[in-house]
Amino acid sequence: MSSAQLPILQVIVPLLAAPLCLLINHKLLNWLFTLLVSGFSFVVAALMLWQVSDTGPLSYHLGGWMPPYGIEIRVDQLNAFVALLITAISTLVITSAHTSLENKKDIAPGKHTYFYVAYLLCFAGLLGILVTGDAFNLFVFLEISSLSSYVLIALGRDRRALWASFQYLVMGTIGATFILIGIGLLYMKTGTLNIADLAERLPEMADTRTIFVAFCFFIVGVCLKLALFPLHMWLPNAYAYAPTVVTAFLAASSTKVALYVVVRFVFVVFGVDFSFTTIPLQAVFVTLGTLGVLVASLVAINQQNIKRMLAYSSIAQIGYMVLGLSFGSITGLMASLLHLFNHALMKGALFLTLGAVFYRIGGVSLKHFQGIGRHMPFTLAAFVIGGVSIIGMPLTVGFVSKWYLLQAAIAQGWYLVSVIILVGSLLSVIYIWKVVDAAYFKPALVNQAQLKEAPLSLLIPVWVLVLANLYFGMDTRLTVTLTDQVATQLMHIEVLP
Amino acid sequence: MNFETQWLQTFFGLYNYWIVVALMMCGLFIVITDGNLIKKVVGLTIFQTSVFILYISMAKVTGATAPIQIEQGTAVYSNPLPHVLILTAIVVSISTTAVALALIVRIKRAYHTVEEDVIQRWDVKKRRSEKRSKPFHE
Amino acid sequence: MNASTLLITTLSLPLFLVLLIVLFRKQPNIRETLSITFGILVFIVNLLLLESLWAGTAIECHLFALFPGLTIAFKIEPLGMVFALVASALWPVTTLYATGYMRAHHEPRQTQFYCFFAIAIFSVLGIAFAGNLLTLFIFYELLTLSTFPLVAHAGTAKAKRGARVYLGILLLSSILFLLLAIISTWHFTGSLDFKNGGLFAQVSDEVVSVILVLFVFGIGKAALMPLHSWLPAAMVAPTPVSALLHAVAVVKAGVFTILKVMVYVIGIERLANLPGTTFLLYLAGFSILVASLVAIRKRNLKARLAWSTVSQLGYITMGALLATPLGIIGSTMHIAMHAFSKITLFFCAGAILVATHKTEIQDMQGLGKQMPITMLAFGIASLGIIGLPPAGGTWSKWLLLMATVETEHWLLMLLLMLSSLLSIGYLLPVSLRAFFPATAAVPLSPAATGSIDLAPKASLLAIVLTTLACVGLFFFADAIYQLASKVV
């Protein structure tokens, strides 16, 4: 296998695997097959990252058509990094999927095949967004992943999952159409759809009203997908009522990919110069980021359903990431990318933990958590470490991103913002604390004899993620070096004409 | 050319955009205000369609022919690419509509209604009762 | 064995112990013997480290880089050595005491208790030997988290409430202020290493003042007045926990951090000239006085001791902020002196609780007949807190007083003397009334007839040991003085 084919393999394998799953139509085999595909994608992503770091961006010309006329698949450090993250999380999530889906409260029996099909499509879509070098292609992949995630959410047993899915569908479609408008206007002005080409041609005409409008439509559309406050309305319900595996996957991947798109377009296509001077994006992002952190954290405190609580916490964390972007500095961008990576690790771990709790108890409200600390020590220990990571205690990944975020804020002289970042992490202490308090200090409501530790097949992925939380919290060489390089590259682009 | 005609020309010269904007607003308005889920989907479709028109109309070059090779290559062609793009976008739109309608069918079965406010009332009630109730049924 | 290896050994011993405790969770005797043995081992290793420190070897060790240019590093200097020695000397004693206390009191979940105890000691050693602010911060937070289960140990609603206040305030202050202070330091100086004379040579006074205030408030464990309320709240913990953690480990970690920041991050010359210092000094003075006043009004013995701790911590903070060598030495010595005295007082309070189930001071009249040794120890330790011979506290208080005189802070000098008088008022009557009750003597309980003292044997032994140490420190204070004077 020649390494030149790697970029296309990243997308095509899961995409082709999806219909194959429909043909296999067998619970266990489907699971193994999906696991295999996901693992394969992980290996491909790792190889790509390695190669990209070694030799520079990879470019694959679809059907042999030269860019900018043909569709290009272009992998540089930024998207290889995110792809590695997404495939890793996906592999872990899928590892636990088989056991997790056994639970009849999570997904209707007989729907397993649909789950795997939709999952693989969603996975393919997300990877497609990451690797594609073509703006319209990006839209198509975005819709592939969105449509399949509507289906995934609707698989939840609670009927509210349907309604959540429908809401997401409406919002998502509006967002995607906004993106389409943005791309259309860009094409109208530049006559190209290739992202690299766009980036080259845009500076000449950056001051026109068309580009301005295109930018606004595009960013609003992506921010809808990103669930940036106040465009987050679809997220809490969707996360709360989807099957737990789905929540874990979406929380750790789909918003991250949306953030990637923001980074790619704000910093590469439009350029920092345009985004931050022609358009008051900085003010917008700072305001929405800080508001998001504060409001979402406060709302999270009041939640009874832990899945909803973590969903709101995700919105707050997205606030942090956007805040990182808003600084428009290398450190800020780095912090944002680091948090993208780190947040995926912690939220993945937390939602998978919820999956384990759900499997045993059949619910994830605060009441269900009461007194289970002693009966499910490993599961709850994982939750505590994940929670500590969200709070941003040292030696966990949360601390690493917070460190850089604060550094960026102080370097900018924005002391109020840095205080808000810290207040946000204090608020997260409260909501994480509520769960810990219930689990360890409240009497159990369940018949204690029935309670036992979650099965290994759920615990292993959870603990892999938890250990990753700790590992990347201590050994930051990989993440920091990589994000530093990426951030420097991205900021460097605007220094050139 | 006097002032009025210049403006009138601009206004009517950009008539395709006005149509797009009008359609887009209609669609969005329906999506936001209408409580009936089916009508929401209709609104969504109108909204998407307006964007298709935006794409297609911008491909049109005045006095150009369809991009088919005639004997000499001197003819002015319309840009074919937006059409191709929109073909894809139409497929996406159809899929979205299909998923949305399928969801509505399921919602109808689960809630016995396709009205937004009724569904939301149900959900609020459910959440309140969840807060009160014990999580386990002995 | 070279010094760096020793350093790693002393840090890893408590962690290794955690493993052993979990392994032997079913055999309490082995579990506790191990705990005590490891405590003694750690102390011995620390003594060896002290020897190499005197010999002048630089003892350093870098583990790994957390961020580029920032490593998890350990480095031994005299201040940390004092703190580590105090903590590691008191750890085995406390374990000994806990053995008696926990069994006599039939506490549940003892394995968990000893585990977190060991982790807490690990964090304390980490704080003591931290080579830069980042390492210090990490262990500081670890200490908060690992002591939390200890505070909440009883599991009652009251314990949980107390523990929540404890965790809340400590996390709030450390995340909101300390982290901000550390990151600002990193931003402005590009370094977090501890350096004699401080890091802020090139930074303007205003900025350093703000950072100083952030540091002082960020180190909530030092229990300076607006952030002190966790200390009385945490008194719901079992007595050995209160004793070790809230008279020794946690609060001393706080004041130690303050001292360390003042000496090695801000630098005392710089500190003396900062506009923010005076404000903080008087805040410390206020803290000393008000806490003493509150202590007098407390009827519950442990609560009174807790407030007395708040007041005494104010002494150390003030000594650090006076920014003179005398103040720093006095503060360093007071860390040690106060530790031994206060732990004895807590031990006694716990012993009284276990033996007679009494917590209120007025019920302890005439207790001297049943628990003569305990009450005598209480009396001697009280002298240590007050600062009277023959207890070690005399020297440190004297030095601190001299430091206020030297810097001509007359009001503060007055405050210190007043607070000492107040401490006579709130501590001495406890032991005096025990021997010379004002009301008619309480009849002897039947259990007392067989033994001299009602306290559990193991606990009594611990009490005697720490009391002897209190007295010993009076006569052999020079060793600590020599070590402390190497700080500045």
Give your account of this protein's structure.
The complex is a heterotrimer of chains A (497), B (138) and C (488). A two-stranded antiparallel sheet of chain A has the order 1-2. Chain A has 20 helices and 2 strands. Chain A is 78% helix and 2% strand. Chain A folds into 2 domains: 1-169 and 229-265, no CATH class; 298-497, no CATH class. The mean pLDDT of chain A is 88. Chain B starts with a helix and ends in a 6-residue tail after the last helix. Chain C has one domain (3-485). Chain C has helices spanning 3-23, 28-55, 78-105, 110-129, 133-151, 157-189, 205-218, 230-233, 239-266, 268-272, 275-297, 301-322, 325-356, 372-386, 393-406, 410-435, 457-475, 477-485, and strands at 60-67, 70-75. In chain C, α3 runs antiparallel to α4 and α9 (239-266) runs antiparallel to α13 (325-356). The chains are: A mainly alpha (497), B mainly alpha (138), C mainly alpha (488).
What key phrases describe this protein's structure?
heterotrimer, B: 138 residues, mainly alpha, Helix Hairpins, 5 helices, 0% strand, C: 488 residues, two-stranded antiparallel ribbon, 18 helices, 74% helix, 3% strand
